[in-house]
Amino acid sequence: MTGLVLNVAAAVLVFEQHFLLAGVAFVVGSVMDTLDGRYSRMSGKGTMFGAFLDSTLDRLEEGIVLTAVAWYFADAGEAVEASLCVVVVLGSLLVSYTRARAEALGVECKVGIATRPVRVVILSLGLAFGAGELFDEVDLLPASIYAMAGLTAFTVGQRVWHVRRELRTLEATEV
Question: Does the model's pTM come out above 0.70?
Fold first, then answer.
């Protein structure tokens, strides 16, 4: 829950155009998300529902922050970047979905470039160095959104191709 609170705070900070602080809140919230699942498993306190809830909240948190970034771009009249935020949300959901669906079919699917940690790093850098807040004339937020849009689309393709190959191999050995 700490991750959720910090990511909501990051979204509010984006609305207020405090990008460096938003980046810090997003990083810390995302790290907390990573640690809570590991701690639960290591301590033996993890449950299947806890894992389900953790994954669900991860998607929600990323979507909340990206929605705030989309609003920022839309408010600034940057329609392409605002639209690409929607593409990034869709891509992030598909990266997660393709893995979950593959694993439901019995195929391990951890392949791909734009895993959640990679997306967190890219968006964190974009936020921290957004709108010239940290360094004048440096605004990495649009570049981070472009990168995430491309990388999530590529990762979905990687996962689809991987699952296709794995299922063909599995089906061939069953015949």
Answer: yes
